[in-house]
Amino acid sequence: MSENKTQAFDIKKAAESKIANVDFENLAFGNIFTDHMLYCDYKDGEWGTPVICPYAPIEMDPSSRVFHYGQAIFEGMKAYKDEQDDIWLFRPDENFIRFNKSATRLAMPEVPEEVFMEGLKQLINIDKEWVRKGKGNSLYLRPFMIATGHGVIAAPSAQYRFMIILSPAKSYYTGEVKVLIAEHFSRAANGGIGAAKAAGNYSAQFYPTRLANQQGYQQVIWTDDATHTKLEEAGTMNVFFRINDTLYTAPTSERILDGVTRKSIIDLAKREGINVEVRSVLVDELLAAAKDGSLKEMFGAGTAAVVNPIVGFSYQDTYYELPKQDKPLSLEIKDKLTNIQYKLAEDTFGWTVKI
Amino acid sequence: MSENKTQAFDIKKAAESKIANVDFENLAFGNIFTDHMLYCDYKDGEWGTPVICPYAPIEMDPSSRVFHYGQAIFEGMKAYKDEQDDIWLFRPDENFIRFNKSATRLAMPEVPEEVFMEGLKQLINIDKEWVRKGKGNSLYLRPFMIATGHGVIAAPSAQYRFMIILSPAKSYYTGEVKVLIAEHFSRAANGGIGAAKAAGNYSAQFYPTRLANQQGYQQVIWTDDATHTKLEEAGTMNVFFRINDTLYTAPTSERILDGVTRKSIIDLAKREGINVEVRSVLVDELLAAAKDGSLKEMFGAGTAAVVNPIVGFSYQDTYYELPKQDKPLSLEIKDKLTNIQYKLAEDTFGWTVKI
Ligand SMILES: Cc1ncc(COP(=O)(O)O)c(C=O)c1O
Ligand SMILES: Cc1ncc(COP(=O)(O)O)c(C=O)c1O
């Protein structure tokens, strides 16, 4: 992280903390926020002074562009506390770079590194009591940017607000995840915004995901929209397939989010001598592997759940149950990765950054 | 319109009007709003009482779903004042139906007809001084809905706000419109949300449109994302091609917005004995027609500009200028359509609805 530049930030502390009211043992994901938030406004072509202030509603004109034309992007990251009470981020540079890539694709201004990185650091420091020790506990960090310019004309806004809000999180257990392979709906177009962490990508998935939920599937595995033959990713996770002893995951593209967890797993697996192939897995291949027993595991990979094992999938109204593994590779990888994140294992990659 | 039910609305009038400060001769589109707005909140599975109140900023929690996951839809309509000072809407039922189709696709609740239609009527009546007489003048109506539920978890919101805001408009003259045919970028996926008037669809277009602007083209004509061979629509307009004396326009699909202006033009042209074919025009066909001189006209069709003539297009770095027409069909159609809207010609279709 860059050196401390407190002067550049306008800091207004909350009169008292809400932390005593929080039941840290029973946290629903993304539901409770810490005492403070950060915002920084962009106007007349430049960013103003970042402000850290008590978490509170913001005033928005009803004609704000974000409401009408959807210029909104975000990131999802976590802060972890180790046994020495030090707080660590995991590859925050990756999130910063991806955030500004998203900004560019949505015709929004890039956020300066100082505002993003130093903003995170200052804000987390002020609310550091909210980061709980113990594996599984974390502080979920949500930097985001919205178009605040007024006017209902379909053109990029001239004004924006960058914000960071923080939410304490427990380990994310989603139960047994069964997935539905998309045959009709899709989340991203060729030449579209699928590779951006843009708000609009998520709302597009809600209706098809709800239909899948009604059929008993928790998630949809998206396929390419043109042919629906290539397996791409899940709603908020990249996807890995273990066929025999090789791990497969789709290459990133304009349609697929370049996940930090995904790329970390690729590196970690390689270090562990696991065979990893980055290439599109076809639906037909998956079906064949499920039928002949070579499909051993499937799992999602993303910041929230780290690794989310999938127990089976449905395609064309047939459900394929995956075999139970004695020692699932998914959990071994999850363990290795979270040990790095919580400073319980040596970080040979230099991924962790102390606050 | 349904009968007057003022009791069901909570109406708080502004202490004074801002109208005296408005220069109605120099209005930028979508920039100035009338004295009042309408909002209606959805919570616990039901819609509350619609409120009409002075136009003012609204309070939003920073974790509101609209900011993070883009659940936001809208409509664009106009109110016209005739020579008798009566105010008319144009096919508002079409916008109402489309609004709720968009809502369903975005996993948002449908808005009751009473709230949408009676809401428009009541609100316009209160701000009726803002609807100016004279062809070209109108009041642009912007019903929209945003997800107001809190929490950064990628799932549909449980709370929503429906709103209507109103903006006085002059006739929308965009100058000479040159367009770029999309070769790489796209606005919609197969199985995506392109047919919905969803906020996210617009932000996806801003960056490629800005690139086109930098090359001297005002708009992009989108092609299908899988092959980029089919001409689809423009950013906020459907597109018509006149080859010899036939008008062509793409069929609506999951990727294309079912425009009210488009369908009205199809009906109007048919009534006038003009040959209209609803089918995809291929880029190759367009090039051939431009080269052999059979391509006579291209124009966009949408509520804001009604009909927007296109003077030329670029494809693969070659610019094709369209021939000048003595009596462009586009302007004849525009005239016939606006005459119906302003009650200057008989409405044989029953499209106009008095407020
Ligand atoms: C669509 C999508 N894919 C994949 C991921 C995983 O990315 P990361 O590992 O950086 O959290 C996310 C983010 O959570 C996502 O939203
Ligand atoms: C993407 C898109 N296509 C076409 C149109 C034209 O639709 P309408 O004629 O209903 O205004 C619009 C709306 O303005 C639009 O946003």
From TrEMBL, chains A, B:
Query: Which reaction(s) does the protein catalyse, per the Swiss-Prot or TrEMBL entry?
Result: L-leucine + 2-oxoglutarate = 4-methyl-2-oxopentanoate + L-glutamate; L-valine + 2-oxoglutarate = 3-methyl-2-oxobutanoate + L-glutamate; L-isoleucine + 2-oxoglutarate = (S)-3-methyl-2-oxopentanoate + L-glutamate
**Could you tell me which species this protein originates from?**
Flavobacterium akiainvivens
Look up the record and name the cofactor or cofactors this protein needs: pyridoxal 5'-phosphate
Question: GO annotations under biological process?
Answer: isoleucine biosynthetic process; L-leucine biosynthetic process; L-valine biosynthetic process
Which domain of life does the UniProt lineage start with?
Bacteria
One annotated GO molecular function: L-isoleucine-2-oxoglutarate transaminase activity
**Residue positions of the PTM N6-(pyridoxal phosphate)lysine?**
197
The record's top EC class is transferase
Supply the alphabetized keyword list. Amino-acid biosynthesis, Aminotransferase, Branched-chain amino acid biosynthesis, Pyridoxal phosphate, Transferase
Annotated protein name in UniProt: Branched-chain-amino-acid aminotransferase
Q: Into which family does the record put it?
A: Belongs to the class-IV pyridoxal-phosphate-dependent aminotransferase family.
User: InterPro entries in the record, alphabetically?
Assistant: Aminotrans_IV, Aminotrans_IV_CS, Aminotransferase-like, B_amino_transII, BCAT-like_C, BCAT-like_N, BCAT_family
User: Annotated pathway, please?
Assistant: Amino-acid biosynthesis; L-leucine biosynthesis; L-leucine from 3-methyl-2-oxobutanoate: step 4/4; Amino-acid biosynthesis; L-valine biosynthesis; L-valine from pyruvate: step 4/4; Amino-acid biosynthesis; L-isoleucine biosynthesis; L-isoleucine from 2-oxobutanoate: step 4/4
Matching Pfam families? Aminotran_4
The keyword DNA-binding is annotated on this UniProt entry:
no
Q: Which PROSITE patterns match?
A: AA_TRANSFER_CLASS_4
**Protein purpose:** Acts on leucine, isoleucine and valine.
EC number(s) stated in the UniProt entry for this protein: 2.6.1.42
